[in-house]
Automatic annotation (TrEMBL):
Required for the insertion and/or proper folding and/or complex formation of integral membrane proteins into the membrane. Involved in integration of membrane proteins that insert both dependently and independently of the Sec translocase complex, as well as at least some lipoproteins. Aids folding of multispanning membrane proteins. GO terms for biological process: protein insertion into membrane; protein transport. The lineage of its organism: Bacteria, Pseudomonadati, Pseudomonadota, Gammaproteobacteria, Chromatiales. Residues 79-354 form the Membrane insertase YidC N-terminal domain. The keyword Secreted does not apply. InterPro entries: Membr_insert_YidC (IPR019998), Membr_insert_YidC_N (IPR028053), YidC/ALB3/OXA1/COX18 (IPR001708), YidC/Oxa/ALB_C (IPR028055), YidC_ALB_C (IPR047196), YidC_periplasmic_sf (IPR038221). Residues 365-542 form the Membrane insertase YidC/Oxa/ALB C-terminal domain. The gene is yidC. This is Membrane protein insertase YidC. The chain crosses the membrane at residues 357-381, 428-451, 508-529. Keywords: Cell membrane, Chaperone, Membrane, Protein transport, Transmembrane, Transmembrane helix, Transport. It comes from Allochromatium humboldtianum. Belongs to the OXA1/ALB3/YidC family. Type 1 subfamily.
Length: 554
């Protein structure tokens, strides 16, 4: 019975270690060196439809331009688009969204005018959004290698306007005309994408549309291994729900799945780009790797026959922006799961909403975490009171427990019987002190994922040196305070009778300080404040119990 606290602290340490191991398996990726441009070769990027679906496509749909065409694409003048939240560059080659800056997000807090670039056309960190059409003959419909034209070279959302439309056009001598139209909305990262195919030939035109996301490994010299997160593809289907496809998985095998009411995305820490097809429309999801240096997740539609003199519109929605939970929920079913809180989502989501509500009142995420900690402590106050009272009783009878151990020596059976009789006489539950830790573990893990995954916490300042609650404390001051608070809390608890166990318990504050030194400072702030509140509560209960005991002895 005297081992329960040791077991619990070791269990919590094991939980922290398992979090780290699971985190590194799912998300942790060693920093990759920049991929040299000359190493990237052309290769198929989209499955060629089988002969029984539509006529064989002799060109290679979805192929990545080789060195020469890639250089030519970079030399072509991009069409620049700017809204209140996005700045984009659309390449004439394929009408590809090759660059995207998020105007509300800086790379680092010290340079607020240096905006975060999510999409980039060249390595390192190449990440582009592509779309195209498949047809019967090589030149009948444009892939994402075809050259489009635009009436303007620059578009800007004007003051007072809520929408901005950007159109690019492609035609051929056969009589096929294709328009790619992107529609932007004020305050939104969601882009409406349309591919309008006009058949002005004298024969039916069979076509299907494809949309894909292509990227290289993520290389961030400022990100340490301890705060690496998932970078790769994800897709959603009503049957399988949310599925991750890591870059390693893309390199190992190709995805080939027909899905209705799903979506595909390529994401990294805090941000993602996603293609969302129309509802109730079946599309085939696929992945492909190009020489293990570029990774693709995409989708293509069912074939459509377009009669002469008519047109067909392939519609999609494209999201390019931050992983804001409230925004993603309104776009498509399951898209909010891109904010990945892990297996404790059922606890993490309420914590996130409560934290957001507090932030709306206090206006600072650090103070919001402190208020949240107080509310959680109040919610479990009575449970903690019972537990701390039990621990205070245990502290009072520690000398008697030691006397029993000295009396019975190595006779474990008689020692346990005597201890149980003592617990029964004193009306003590020896496991009562375990409950606060057991209750905190799932809340701690859920809050860990909330702080790690919520883009609202990115670069969120608190006070003094704590200018980024999503990153570890740069000076390790807060983890040290946490370690000291844990040491003080242990001094309020009864010491284990066994000297070896006592030494192990005294080493745990140091072990936990090392663990927490690499955790987001927002999480360390929560744990530190929780420890301080626990110390105050436990000190008061211990003092009250001592007063009660003294009165009974008079």
């Amino acid at each position: 019975m005297d081992n329960q606290r040791l077991f619990l602290f070791l269990a919590l340490a094991a939980v922290l270690f398992l979090i780290y191991e699971s985190w590194m398996q799912d998300y942790g990726r060693p920093a990759q060196l920049p991929v040299a441009q000359e190493q990237i070769q052309g290769a198929p990027g989209i499955p060629v439809p089988s002969a029984n679906e539509i006529p064989t496509v002799s060109t290679t749909p979805g192929a990545v331009p080789d060195g020469a065409s890639l250089s030519a694409a970079l030399d072509e003048t991009p069409i620049r688009v700017e809204t209140d939240v996005l700045r984009l560059e659309i390449s004439p080659r394929g009408a590809t969204i090759a660059s995207a800056w998020l105007l509300d997000y800086a790379v680092v807090p010290e340079r607020p005018d240096d905006k975060f670039q999510l999409l980039k056309p060249v390595p390192p960190n190449m990440f582009v959004v592509q779309s195209g059409l498949l047809g019967e003959k090589p030149d009948l419909l444009p892939t994402h290698e075809a050259i489009f034209t635009s009436a303007q070279s620059q578009y800007e959302l004007q003051p007072g306007a809520d929408r901005l439309e950007v159109a690019l056009e492609w035609t051929n001598d056969a009589g096929v005309r294709v328009k790619k139209i992107y529609t932007f909305t004020r305050g939104s990262y969601l882009i409406e994408s349309r591919q309008v195919v006009e058949n002005q030939t004298d024969a039916p035109l069979i076509a299907r549309a494809y949309n894909q996301l292509q990227r290289t490994e993520l290389y961030d010299p400022n990100e340490t291994r301890f705060i690496s997160t998932f970078t790769g593809g994800v897709y959603y289907s009503p049957e399988e729900k949310y599925k991750k496809v890591s870059l390693e998985d893309i390199a190992k095998g190709k995805l080939d799945r027909t899905v209705t009411d799903g979506w595909i995305a390529m994401m990294q820490h805090y941000f993602l780009a996603a293609w969302v097809p129309p509802r109730a429309v079946a599309e085939t999801f696929y992945t492909n790797a190009l020489n293990n240096s570029r990774y693709i997740i995409g989708k293509y539609s069912q074939p459509v026959s377009i009669s002469p003199g008519t047109a067909h519109v392939f519609e999609n929605q494209l999201f390019v922006g931050p992983k804001l939970l409230s925004t993603l929920e309104d776009i498509a079913p399951g898209l909010e799961l891109a904010v990945d809180y892990g297996w404790l989502t059922v606890i993490a989501k309420p914590i996130y909403w409560l934290l957001s509500w507090i932030y709306a009142v206090v206006g600072n995420w650090g103070w919001s975490i402190i208020v949240l900690t107080i509310l959680i402590k109040l919610a479990f106050y009575k449970l903690s009171e019972t537990s701390y009272r039990s621990m205070a009783h245990m502290r009072q009878i520690t000398p008697r427990l030691q006397a029993l151990k000295d009396r019975y020596g190595d006779d474990k059976q008689r020692l346990n019987q005597a201890m149980m009789e003592l617990y029964k006489t004193e009306k003590i539950n020896p496991l009562g002190g375990c409950l606060p830790i057991l209750v905190q573990i799932p809340v701690f893990i859920a809050l860990y994922w909330v702080l790690l995954e919520s883009v609202e916490m990115r670069q969120a300042p608190f006070v003094l040196w704590l200018d980024n609650l999503s990153a570890p404390d740069p000076y390790f001051i807060l983890p040290l305070i946490m370690g000291v608070s844990m040491f003080v809390q242990q001094k309020l608890n009864p010491a284990p009778p066994d000297p070896l166990q006592a030494k192990i318990m005294m080493s745990l504050p140091f072990v936990f300080t090392v663990f927490f030194a690499f955790f987001p400072s927002g999480l360390v702030l929560y744990w530190t404040v929780n420890n301080l509140l626990s110390i105050a509560q436990q000190w008061k209960i211990t003092r009250d119990l001592e007063v009660e005991t003294a009165k009974r002895r008079r």
